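Structure request: Putative E3 ubiquitin-protein ligase CHFR, Streblomastix strix.
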Amino acid sequence: DDMENELQCGICSEIMHNCVSVISCLHTFCSFCLSMWLDQGSNTCPHCRNNIDYVVRNFKIRNVVDAYLTEHPDKKRDKETIEELEKNNQLTEDKLRKIEEKKRMKRKNDSDDEDNDSDENSSDSDDGGQHRQNRFGAQIFGVPMVQCRQCTTAGLDGFICGPNQSHKMCQCCIRYFPDRTLTPLQPGQQAPPPTQCLYCKSSFCNLYWGCTGPNGDTSFRLLKDMQLVAVPQNCILNNQTETDLFIKLLNTYIKLTPDQLWKKIINQLIDGSQAGQINRTNSTASSQQGSSDNENSDKDDDDDDQQQGAGVNNV
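Returned structure:
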């Protein structure tokens, strides 16, 4: 029934015994099943593959399991099977209790630190109303804690930071520059160049006024102009095992370097062929409705693909 399905362990497919939950995804398993999974060297959740921070006992689900087994005693595992599985269980009740106590102490200490910081900030802000907070740091007695060179000197387009100007930090040179995304343009003033990546949301100043960091003027550029020297670690679902499988597939069967595969994907996105292929793959059933429907569908796909390609060119 539905209740039985909900109470099944995702590893052994039996009703859970001494269930434990993975933090932070909260997926729940038998303690000895998860112990065997971790003994294999994996530090990811068996269900979603997210990294495991720590493991805790889930008393609420344990109570539900006990109530269910009381009404359905035939679903219980025999005592000998449980004893055999518990022999190699590293997630013992004593060990889990120590983990939980350690986490409670850490939360308590963190809470005490936050209270102390709050008290210090309250005393610092007692300045007769002259203390003001902006997006990147505070102004104390009218002097901004975050400054860039346009806070004192106007740029080539005549822009100079106001008293409450927001700032961004360049992730290459680690210096501040104006965040003008919400700053209204003056008459005759051109819009500033893009400074934030649409994908990773990191900010860079090289297109704004030139970057002095290690990557210089190449720190922020179009996707099609980037080079992929190697496959990034944990690039697939933040899981190194699956990333290693992808690298093996790339080297053994696809036989392309990471940069060659990158360029191929970007070029297909730009001309729309990759997006069109995905759309046609997902509409196999509808493709059997007739040649006229296919022609209309392909035409719509081509229109959408051109828009997607244009978007990649303007990243």
